[in-house]
Design goal:
Helices cover about 30% and strands about 25% of the residues. By secondary structure, the chain is an alpha+beta fold. The longest helix has 22 residues. Helix 2 crosses helix 3. It contains three helices and five strands. The protein has a single domain, classed as 60s Ribosomal Protein L30, Chain: A, CATH 3.30.1330.
């Protein structure tokens, strides 16, 4: 269901990535799945590097946020054994945007992820979120986003 919806939107669900350090990609606790921060590498391909307000445009930041959202959905897909009927809703996104000190358009950048999740999941994709600017992110990426989903256990 979700995979087909993503394809209709012009996206493919990537493979769920493995952690690059000493953590797990997600934790299921009760009826929630906590997705570790996802960066905009798709299927291991390095992309979306840079700093908003310097060499990276808002549109490029939105592309990076969409890549993070695809990786989040891939982790959820793995967590529910590809059974999206178990996913009740996206509860929250937490986003970090690498930017210059004077950059203030964090919400517009993170809308790339929010819009994709809502487009893919409909009402169940509407979520709370935060978007903050930071001076740098792991591996030099533009955006990192984590998530919480409610699932049936």
């Amino acid at each position: 269901m979700l995979v087909e919806k993503l394809k209709s939107l012009g996206y493919n669900l990537p493979e769920a990535s493995i952690p690059a350090a000493n953590y797990v990609p997600y934790v299921i606790s009760g009826n929630q799945v906590f997705i570790s921060g996802q960066i905009p590498f798709l299927n291991g391909e390095k992309m979306h590097m840079g700093t908003l307000g310097a060499e990276t445009s808002i549109e490029q930041g939105q592309e990076a946020a969409r890549a993070c959202a695809l990786n989040i959905l891939a982790q959820v897909n793995h967590a529910v054994d590809e059974d999206w009927s178990k996913v009740k809703r996206c509860v929250k996104l937490g986003a970090f945007v690498a930017c210059t000190p004077d950059f203030t358009d964090h919400p517009e950048v993170v809308n790339g992820a929010s819009d994709l999740i809502v487009a893919a999941m409909g009402e169940r994709g509407k979520h709370a979120r935060f978007a903050i600017g930071v001076p740098s992110l792991p591996r030099g990426v533009t955006v990192e986003i984590d998530a919480i989903f409610e699932v049936e256990t």
